[in-house]
Fold this sequence. Notes:
Elements: E1 2-5, E2 12-17, E3 24-27, H1 29-34, H2 56-62, H3 67-76
Antiparallel strand pairs: 1-2, 2-3
Helix pairs in contact: 2-3
Amino acid sequence: MQQLTCSHCGAANVVAVCSRCERAFVISERRITEGMRQTADAPWKEPSGLEVQPCDFCVSKDMKEALTVRVDRGLRQRTCPACNKEFLSAHGLKK
């Protein structure tokens, strides 16, 4: 896990890499408390040793959700929970 700053709003975000698909994803409060990232969410600010695996995309795939739902979850997990804008690619995390 690493802490990265959103280039759009300046919020600090904790980012992990999925152990299965190797995609980088932002960890949010609801990801920790409810198991899945939500649209209305907030950044998780405690980069500790808590294991958050796999990413929402892989969880969605395991649940056999529709492809549109999986893609939405995959794209959402790359956004800042504070401003809902994608920022991981600005840090060189392309996957």
